[in-house]
Specification:
Elements (H helix, E strand, L loop, with lengths): L1 H58 L4 H28 L2 E3 L6 E3 L24 H11 L2 H4 L1
Antiparallel strand pairs: 1-2
Helix pairs in contact: 1-2, 1-3
Length: about 150
Amino acid sequence: MGIFEDVMLNAKTVVGTVGKKAGEIVDVSKLKLAAADLKGEISQKYQFLGRLAFEEMTTGKDYSKNKEEIADKIKELKAHLESINDMIAASKKKIKCECCGAYNAKGAVFCNNCGEKLLNNQDETDHMSPDDVIDFAEDNFADDELL
């Protein structure tokens, strides 16, 4: 009976771990979808900004106020996208290059993108656990932004 109980306990532990990992993958996938949606919205804003600039050049009308509003919205969307990318990187235990902003493996000494020396003296507490990432996303973004 003792061996059977040990096997059952080990099986339950494995199932629990697999379930948790699957949940983390789903949560990161939601963040990736939100990032893709934001990239699409940013692209649309850029296109509209280009159209306004073209209209301004060809018709002589002044669209500077509209262009400023769109530029401000693009900045806001980019900041939102960066925060989502930071959450994704944190869940994957990656660090961000201070020079170029590229994400690198936690143990990397130099940036894979620009070659700059990375600051790897961060504590483990600097990184959010996957559960913390999900809690942060749920607290700071509407459900429709995460899907």
